[in-house]
Amino acid sequence: MTATPNYSPKPPRFASFFSVFCSKVTKSSRRKLAAFLRKQPGFIGKIIDDGKVQGVFRNDLDSMVTAHMILGNLSGATQQSLANRSLTLTALLGEAKSMTMARISR
Questions:
Q1: Which comes out higher in pLDDT, residue 78 or 6?
Q2: Which of 8, 18, 40, 94 gives the lowest tally of CB atoms within 10 Å of its CB?
Q3: What is the DSSP string of 16-43?
Q4: Amino acid 53: pLDDT
Q5: Closest CA to 48 of 30, 66, 21
């Protein structure tokens, strides 16, 4: 069995940056943010496709649907950490990762 690749950057740092960025959104930065977010599913989808080829991820996955599911989990974890300060972003992202890997791994 092939080891699962670790593609996770330091999410809490990104989430903090993202929260600050969103709080200072202007018309120009909104367009830049939208362009950035439109690229993310394709980037994640390619990682999933690579994992399928390597035999790490299930072949029956729809890579783009799964990519959007992953982004939804990340967004939800960030939202919940802001809504309930007793839940750390690190813990929520760890759970989202575990749930995702259970779904996509062979």
A1: 78
A2: 8
A3: HHHHHHHHT--HHHHHHHHHHHHHHHHH
A4: 96
A5: 66
